[in-house]
Amino acid sequence: MPDVAIASNREDAAAADQVVAHHAEMAGKLAMLVTAVTQASTGEEARAARDRLVAWARAGLLPHAAAEERSLYRAGGELAELKVLVPAMLAEHRAIDELVETLARADTFGAIAGAAGGLREIVSVHIHKENEALLPALVASNAHSVADLLAEMHATSGASSPSAECDAHACACGHEEAAEPELDACAIPHAIRHATIFGALDTLQPGRSLTLLAPHDPVPLLAQLEQRNPGAFEVEYLRRGPDVWRLRFLRR
């Protein structure tokens, strides 16, 4: 969240930070799922990757958007400075819904890759608006408690675990994954870097790996990952600096 936003209390500031971190996790998951589509070498692989992406969107992304509408967007619509932004963002939610259904119907590699790439782009732009405009306005306003709005979101979301949904589908489909994905952490803003990486790692199925490029030795990240998912990943250093660290994360 931008530093220029002044929270009315610490609880609201912490709640806004939680929303931003969750957005980063979703962006990381989406990036890896779309990469699996674009790196597919056969139509069968592309369709399997499509199915995993659609399953994640229906189980996590779309319920999250609906919960936001019932809480953050409802409150934002009452603020004068967001009167124009909120309807536009609601329209983007409808566009995201339609893109997910277009993706679900896509069958050729070109159609699947196009819909997946479009979904990634619109979600990225949409998240930026939420982080940089919607949340700061709500945090700076005394009209609503962001902490209460976040609690309301959690109570009404009804979303299942996105990573569990993806894993369950992938285990059932029986198809091979595409090439190992690579995530360049150097290109991710520092404030959301760890959350984005965690989101990407959440998409990995047992036996699959991801290569991470980091601007420094990510010792704090590894400690947080072990606390978050004890024993879930085997980590191998492929390169140790001095400018870039390269690590492989294998889900056990």
What would you note in describing this structure?
The chain folds into two domains: 10-173; 182-251, TusA-like domain (Translation Initiation Factor IF3, 2-Layer Sandwich), CATH 3.30.110.40. It has helices at residues 10-38, 43-76, 85-105, 109-140, 146-156, 162-173, 193-202, 219-228; strands at 182-184, 209-214, 233-240, 245-251. 63% of the residues lie in helices and 10% in strands. A hairpin with a 4-residue loop joins strand 3 (233-240) and strand 4. Strands 1-2-4-3 form a four-stranded mixed beta sheet, with helices on one face. The chain is globular, with a radius of gyration of 19 Å.
Helix and strand element order: HHHHHHEHEHEE
Helical residue percent band:
55-70%
* H/I helix tally: 8
Nearest-integer average pLDDT: 88
Distance between the termini: 34 Å
Structural class from helices and strands? alpha+beta
The unreliable regions are 1-5, 160-178
